[in-house]
Amino acid sequence: MADAPASTRPARSPRGPVRARRLFVAPSVLALLVLGLYPLIFIAAASVTESSLGKPFQDFVGAETFAAILGDDDIVASLGRSAVYAVAVAAASLALGVVAALALHGAVRRGSLVMTLLLLPLLTPPVVVGTLWKLIYNPGGGLLAVVLGVFGLPRDAIAPLSSTTWALPGVAVADVWQWTPLIALLVFTALLGQDPEIIEAARLDGAHGWRLFRSITLPAIAGVVAAAFFIRLVLAFKVFDLVFMMTSGGPGQSTTLASYVIYQSALREFDVGRAAVVTLLLAVLVTVVTLPVVALTRKLQRTHE
User: Where is the ABC transmembrane type-1 domain (predicted)?
Assistant: First the structure.
Protein backbone atom coordinates (compact mmCIF):
# COMPACT_ATOMS: atom_id res chain seq x y z
CA MET A 1 0.00 0.00 0.00
CA ALA A 2 1.36 3.40 -1.01
CA ASP A 3 2.28 5.86 1.63
CA ALA A 4 -0.25 8.53 2.36
CA PRO A 5 0.48 11.98 0.97
CA ALA A 6 2.53 14.17 3.22
CA SER A 7 -0.35 16.60 3.54
CA THR A 8 -2.63 13.89 4.98
CA ARG A 9 -0.14 12.59 7.55
CA PRO A 10 -1.13 13.44 11.12
CA ALA A 11 1.06 16.10 12.68
CA ARG A 12 3.17 15.12 15.63
CA SER A 13 1.70 16.02 18.94
CA PRO A 14 3.59 18.82 20.67
CA ARG A 15 2.50 17.57 24.07
CA GLY A 16 5.89 16.09 24.91
CA PRO A 17 7.93 19.30 24.51
CA VAL A 18 5.13 21.35 26.09
CA ARG A 19 5.04 19.08 29.12
CA ALA A 20 8.82 19.25 29.42
CA ARG A 21 8.75 23.06 29.35
CA ARG A 22 5.98 23.11 31.94
CA LEU A 23 7.97 20.75 34.12
CA PHE A 24 11.02 23.03 34.01
CA VAL A 25 8.93 26.17 34.65
CA ALA A 26 6.88 24.64 37.48
CA PRO A 27 9.46 25.21 40.27
CA SER A 28 9.75 28.90 39.36
CA VAL A 29 5.97 29.32 39.29
CA LEU A 30 5.65 27.53 42.62
CA ALA A 31 8.36 29.69 44.19
CA LEU A 32 6.63 32.81 42.85
CA LEU A 33 3.32 31.74 44.36
CA VAL A 34 4.82 30.85 47.73
CA LEU A 35 7.21 33.79 48.05
CA GLY A 36 5.15 36.43 46.24
CA LEU A 37 1.44 35.74 46.09
CA TYR A 38 0.93 34.35 49.59
CA PRO A 39 2.64 37.28 51.40
CA LEU A 40 0.65 39.72 49.24
CA ILE A 41 -2.64 38.04 50.17
CA PHE A 42 -1.60 37.98 53.83
CA ILE A 43 -0.72 41.69 53.82
CA ALA A 44 -3.93 42.62 51.99
CA ALA A 45 -6.02 40.63 54.46
CA ALA A 46 -4.20 42.08 57.48
CA SER A 47 -4.68 45.63 56.19
CA VAL A 48 -8.48 45.39 56.36
CA THR A 49 -8.72 43.50 59.65
CA GLU A 50 -7.78 44.01 63.27
CA SER A 51 -4.54 42.05 63.30
CA SER A 52 -1.87 41.68 65.93
CA LEU A 53 1.33 39.68 65.81
CA GLY A 54 -0.20 36.80 67.75
CA LYS A 55 -3.80 37.06 66.52
CA PRO A 56 -4.11 38.10 62.88
CA PHE A 57 -7.37 38.53 60.99
CA GLN A 58 -9.69 39.29 63.90
CA ASP A 59 -12.42 41.88 63.30
CA PHE A 60 -12.98 43.34 59.83
CA VAL A 61 -12.28 47.09 59.87
CA GLY A 62 -12.30 47.87 56.16
CA ALA A 63 -10.55 51.12 55.27
CA GLU A 64 -10.38 52.48 58.83
CA THR A 65 -6.68 51.69 59.18
CA PHE A 66 -5.93 53.31 55.83
CA ALA A 67 -7.76 56.47 56.92
CA ALA A 68 -5.88 56.53 60.22
CA ILE A 69 -2.52 56.05 58.51
CA LEU A 70 -3.16 58.71 55.87
CA GLY A 71 -4.20 61.08 58.65
CA ASP A 72 -0.97 60.50 60.57
CA ASP A 73 1.42 63.30 59.61
CA ASP A 74 4.49 61.38 60.84
CA ILE A 75 3.80 58.36 58.64
CA VAL A 76 2.95 60.46 55.59
CA ALA A 77 6.19 62.38 56.18
CA SER A 78 8.12 59.10 56.41
CA LEU A 79 6.75 58.02 53.02
CA GLY A 80 7.78 61.32 51.45
CA ARG A 81 11.15 61.11 53.16
CA SER A 82 11.64 57.61 51.75
CA ALA A 83 10.95 58.79 48.20
CA VAL A 84 13.36 61.73 48.43
CA TYR A 85 16.00 59.57 50.09
CA ALA A 86 15.71 56.79 47.50
CA VAL A 87 15.96 59.09 44.48
CA ALA A 88 18.88 61.07 45.94
CA VAL A 89 20.84 57.99 47.01
CA ALA A 90 20.21 56.19 43.72
CA ALA A 91 21.32 59.23 41.71
CA ALA A 92 24.50 59.63 43.77
CA SER A 93 25.29 55.92 43.49
CA LEU A 94 24.71 56.01 39.74
CA ALA A 95 27.01 58.98 39.16
CA LEU A 96 29.80 57.57 41.32
CA GLY A 97 29.29 54.07 39.95
CA VAL A 98 29.65 55.17 36.33
CA VAL A 99 32.81 57.10 37.15
CA ALA A 100 34.20 54.13 39.08
CA ALA A 101 33.33 51.75 36.22
CA LEU A 102 35.17 53.92 33.70
CA ALA A 103 38.20 54.08 35.98
CA LEU A 104 37.96 50.35 36.63
CA HIS A 105 37.76 49.61 32.92
CA GLY A 106 41.04 51.37 32.36
CA ALA A 107 42.67 49.88 35.44
CA VAL A 108 41.77 46.27 34.66
CA ARG A 109 43.27 46.52 31.22
CA ARG A 110 46.50 47.42 32.95
CA GLY A 111 46.26 44.44 35.29
CA SER A 112 45.27 46.36 38.41
CA LEU A 113 43.56 44.89 41.49
CA VAL A 114 41.23 47.87 41.77
CA MET A 115 38.19 45.67 41.08
CA THR A 116 38.70 43.66 44.26
CA LEU A 117 39.13 46.78 46.35
CA LEU A 118 35.99 48.39 44.94
CA LEU A 119 33.89 45.32 45.65
CA LEU A 120 34.81 45.13 49.34
CA PRO A 121 31.94 47.44 50.49
CA LEU A 122 29.46 45.32 48.54
CA LEU A 123 30.66 42.18 50.31
CA THR A 124 30.28 43.77 53.75
CA PRO A 125 27.02 42.94 55.60
CA PRO A 126 24.73 45.99 56.08
CA VAL A 127 24.84 45.60 59.86
CA VAL A 128 28.63 45.85 59.78
CA VAL A 129 28.43 48.84 57.43
CA GLY A 130 26.07 50.61 59.84
CA THR A 131 28.35 49.93 62.79
CA LEU A 132 31.42 51.02 60.85
CA TRP A 133 29.95 54.36 59.81
CA LYS A 134 28.52 54.97 63.25
CA LEU A 135 32.07 54.66 64.60
CA ILE A 136 33.36 56.95 61.83
CA TYR A 137 30.83 59.63 62.82
CA ASN A 138 31.48 59.21 66.56
CA PRO A 139 32.51 62.67 67.85
CA GLY A 140 34.36 61.07 70.75
CA GLY A 141 37.17 59.62 68.64
CA GLY A 142 35.86 58.49 65.27
CA LEU A 143 37.64 59.00 61.98
CA LEU A 144 35.72 62.20 61.26
CA ALA A 145 36.70 63.64 64.65
CA VAL A 146 40.34 62.74 64.03
CA VAL A 147 40.30 64.49 60.64
CA LEU A 148 38.76 67.58 62.21
CA GLY A 149 41.45 67.55 64.89
CA VAL A 150 44.17 67.44 62.22
CA PHE A 151 42.80 70.66 60.75
CA GLY A 152 42.61 72.30 64.18
CA LEU A 153 38.82 72.14 64.49
CA PRO A 154 36.94 70.91 67.57
CA ARG A 155 36.42 67.16 67.43
CA ASP A 156 32.69 67.55 68.05
CA ALA A 157 32.26 70.35 65.50
CA ILE A 158 30.48 67.93 63.16
CA ALA A 159 28.30 65.19 64.62
CA PRO A 160 25.97 64.16 61.78
CA LEU A 161 24.02 61.47 63.63
CA SER A 162 23.11 63.90 66.43
CA SER A 163 21.69 66.51 64.05
CA THR A 164 18.15 66.45 62.72
CA THR A 165 19.46 68.11 59.56
CA TRP A 166 22.48 65.90 58.84
CA ALA A 167 21.48 62.52 60.27
CA LEU A 168 19.71 61.32 57.12
CA PRO A 169 22.50 62.54 54.80
CA GLY A 170 24.92 60.73 57.12
CA VAL A 171 22.99 57.48 56.64
CA ALA A 172 22.84 58.18 52.91
CA VAL A 173 26.64 58.44 52.70
CA ALA A 174 26.97 54.97 54.23
CA ASP A 175 24.31 53.64 51.86
CA VAL A 176 26.05 55.11 48.81
CA TRP A 177 29.40 53.75 49.99
CA GLN A 178 28.00 50.24 50.27
CA TRP A 179 26.01 49.97 47.03
CA THR A 180 27.97 52.09 44.55
CA PRO A 181 30.21 49.09 43.72
CA LEU A 182 27.10 47.24 42.47
CA ILE A 183 26.44 50.01 39.95
CA ALA A 184 30.13 50.04 39.03
CA LEU A 185 30.10 46.28 38.44
CA LEU A 186 27.01 46.41 36.20
CA VAL A 187 28.30 49.33 34.15
CA PHE A 188 31.77 47.77 33.97
CA THR A 189 30.23 44.63 32.48
CA ALA A 190 28.49 46.74 29.85
CA LEU A 191 31.77 48.48 29.05
CA LEU A 192 33.43 45.13 28.44
CA GLY A 193 30.74 44.35 25.87
CA GLN A 194 31.59 47.33 23.69
CA ASP A 195 32.94 46.73 20.19
CA PRO A 196 36.64 47.71 20.36
CA GLU A 197 36.69 48.43 16.64
CA ILE A 198 34.07 51.17 17.03
CA ILE A 199 36.04 52.72 19.89
CA GLU A 200 39.25 52.61 17.87
CA ALA A 201 37.55 54.15 14.84
CA ALA A 202 36.15 56.96 16.98
CA ARG A 203 39.60 57.66 18.39
CA LEU A 204 41.08 57.80 14.92
CA ASP A 205 38.42 60.38 14.07
CA GLY A 206 39.58 62.51 16.98
CA ALA A 207 37.08 61.53 19.67
CA HIS A 208 38.76 61.35 23.09
CA GLY A 209 37.81 61.84 26.72
CA TRP A 210 34.40 63.36 27.34
CA ARG A 211 33.55 63.52 23.63
CA LEU A 212 34.22 59.78 23.21
CA PHE A 213 32.15 58.97 26.29
CA ARG A 214 29.21 61.18 25.28
CA SER A 215 29.05 60.15 21.63
CA ILE A 216 30.06 56.49 21.67
CA THR A 217 30.25 54.93 25.13
CA LEU A 218 27.16 56.42 26.80
CA PRO A 219 24.70 55.52 23.99
CA ALA A 220 26.07 51.97 24.01
CA ILE A 221 25.61 51.44 27.76
CA ALA A 222 22.57 53.70 28.36
CA GLY A 223 20.18 50.76 28.75
CA VAL A 224 22.39 49.11 31.35
CA VAL A 225 22.85 52.41 33.19
CA ALA A 226 19.08 52.92 33.37
CA ALA A 227 18.56 49.34 34.57
CA ALA A 228 21.25 49.81 37.22
CA PHE A 229 19.53 52.99 38.39
CA PHE A 230 16.25 51.07 38.69
CA ILE A 231 17.87 48.34 40.80
CA ARG A 232 19.56 50.91 43.02
CA LEU A 233 16.31 52.82 43.44
CA VAL A 234 14.49 49.73 44.69
CA LEU A 235 17.34 48.89 47.08
CA ALA A 236 17.25 52.43 48.47
CA PHE A 237 13.54 52.15 49.24
CA LYS A 238 14.26 48.96 51.20
CA VAL A 239 16.96 50.41 53.45
CA PHE A 240 16.45 49.42 57.08
CA ASP A 241 19.65 47.95 58.51
CA LEU A 242 21.59 51.21 58.32
CA VAL A 243 18.84 53.24 59.97
CA PHE A 244 18.42 50.63 62.68
CA MET A 245 22.13 50.43 63.45
CA MET A 246 23.07 54.09 63.08
CA THR A 247 20.14 56.20 64.33
CA SER A 248 17.14 54.03 65.30
CA GLY A 249 15.00 56.48 63.37
CA GLY A 250 16.23 59.57 65.24
CA PRO A 251 17.02 62.14 66.26
CA GLY A 252 13.32 62.84 66.45
CA GLN A 253 11.77 61.51 63.25
CA SER A 254 14.54 62.78 60.96
CA THR A 255 15.68 59.32 59.78
CA THR A 256 12.41 57.45 60.21
CA LEU A 257 11.81 55.97 56.77
CA ALA A 258 8.79 53.89 55.75
CA SER A 259 10.67 50.62 56.22
CA TYR A 260 11.48 51.59 59.80
CA VAL A 261 7.84 52.50 60.45
CA ILE A 262 6.85 49.01 59.30
CA TYR A 263 9.36 47.51 61.73
CA GLN A 264 8.09 49.68 64.59
CA SER A 265 4.45 48.85 63.92
CA ALA A 266 4.91 45.10 63.48
CA LEU A 267 7.67 44.17 65.91
CA ARG A 268 7.52 46.87 68.58
CA GLU A 269 3.82 47.68 68.76
CA PHE A 270 2.70 44.25 67.44
CA ASP A 271 0.15 45.99 65.19
CA VAL A 272 0.31 43.87 62.04
CA GLY A 273 -2.67 45.62 60.47
CA ARG A 274 -0.98 49.01 60.71
CA ALA A 275 2.30 47.57 59.35
CA ALA A 276 0.41 45.96 56.45
CA VAL A 277 -1.19 49.25 55.46
CA VAL A 278 2.15 51.08 55.49
CA THR A 279 3.64 48.24 53.43
CA LEU A 280 0.92 48.57 50.80
CA LEU A 281 1.32 52.35 50.68
CA LEU A 282 5.07 51.93 50.31
CA ALA A 283 4.50 49.44 47.48
CA VAL A 284 2.29 51.97 45.68
CA LEU A 285 4.91 54.68 46.22
CA VAL A 286 7.70 52.47 44.86
CA THR A 287 5.58 51.62 41.82
CA VAL A 288 4.82 55.28 41.08
CA VAL A 289 8.47 56.32 41.41
CA THR A 290 9.95 53.40 39.45
CA LEU A 291 7.48 53.21 36.54
CA PRO A 292 9.10 56.11 34.63
CA VAL A 293 12.51 54.50 35.15
CA VAL A 294 11.21 51.16 33.81
CA ALA A 295 9.74 52.88 30.75
CA LEU A 296 13.00 54.73 30.11
CA THR A 297 15.02 51.52 30.51
CA ARG A 298 12.90 49.67 27.95
CA LYS A 299 13.08 52.58 25.51
CA LEU A 300 16.86 52.78 25.75
CA GLN A 301 17.26 49.01 25.35
CA ARG A 302 15.04 48.99 22.25
CA THR A 303 16.95 51.92 20.79
CA HIS A 304 20.29 50.16 21.33
CA GLU A 305 18.99 46.95 19.76
Answer: 79-293
